[in-house]
Amino acid sequence: MLTGVFAAQKKDGSTYYRSNITFQGKHISLGSFSCELDAHQAYLEADRLLKDQGITIVNILFSDYLLGHDKIVTLLNFRDHRIYMKNPIYMYRSYFHYYLTPEEIYKFDIDDLFYFSSHKLLKRGGRLYVNDYGMQVTVLSRYGIRNFAVAGKDYLFANQDPYDLRYENIININPFHGVRRLSKNGTVAYETYIHIRGDYRIGIYDTLYEAAIAYNKAADLARQHGVDKNFPTNFITELSAREYAQAYVEATVSEKYKKYLKRLQKR
Asked: Residue 138: how many CA atoms within 13 Å on its side-chain side?
């Protein structure tokens, strides 16, 4: 066998080749290959990456390698920082980069290193998520951003870089259910809507808290009229129980919505 290559057998009896390398006492698997030469090439590439300090995370050309980008990033990070992680993470002093692809690189606070070193970053339908205890958890939920929030309306990037996911760069405009932020001619207002058999507008309010409380009131009215749906509740910790109760009583709900609930109840 060529250096760094080991033959193995599949269940059907066919042979494939595993490539491995040892560096700084760490035994690293480089992957499986259909032929011995490819497995050996992977070993040679890894050996060069781990020994040639002239190859850096900045000047690396991923397309020149048989090794996948995730393995390359892992090797360079281990070489430079002596910390081995299976996920394609490269560390800096106060943040780290997660290489979803060679071109799609996300920046996270170093405080999130442990989490993302053990949770693989995935993307579907334009949304980033991880699998956590068998559930798909969106990355933005870590910042208190709802699953179907819209960038530019519900949250903003302070430096306008959507790949910078450090906490200081995320501005959560609207953390509440059923609330949309409206902006026109420099004036900001908040629209409340509820989804039953479509979106029903509850009203437009001057403050975010008023809009969030109006949603809670609209959900309570729906339940009172027999709508069997698990409406989420907006929790407003900034208000005392007395302040919330007063705001709840004063919250207005559109008459059109009330009439809709009455018609729904008669069916």
From this structure: 13
148-178 pLDDT tens trace: 788 888 899 999 999 999 999 999 888 888 9
In terms of Cα–Cα distance, which of 191, 237, 245 is closest to 220?
Answer: 245
**Tens digits of residue pLDDT in 202-221:** 999 999 999 999 999 999 99
Write the CB contacts of 166 (distance below 8 Å, at least 6 apart in sequence): 95, 107, 108, 109
Phi, psi of 204 (to 5 degrees): -120, 135
Task: Give residue 82's region: left, alpha or beta (phi > 0; psi -120 to 50).
Answer: left
Q: Distances from the Cα of 101 to the Cαs of 98, 114, 179, in angstroms? A: 9, 20, 34
15, containing H or E segment? strand 15-23
The tokens of 115 are what?
């989490």
Residue 104 phi/psi, 5-degree rounding, is -105, 100
If you ran DSSP here, which 8-state letter would residue 13 be given? S
pTM, entire model: 0.77
Question: Look-up: residue for tokens 């004063």?
Answer: 250
Q: Which amino acid is at 123?
A: K
Cβ atoms 49, 56 nearer than 8 A = no
Mapped onto helix, strand or coil, the DSSP state of residue 234 is: coil
130 Cα distance to chain centroid: 7
Provide φ and ψ at 137, rounded to 5°.
Answer: -115, 120
- Amino acid making up residue 226: G
Cα separation, 47 vs 60, whole angstroms: 15
Nearest-Å Rg of the Cα atoms of the chain is 26
Q: Which of 164, 163, 146 is nearest to 234 (CA)?
A: 146
Give the residue from 53, 44, 38 showing the smallest Cα distance to 21. Answer: 44
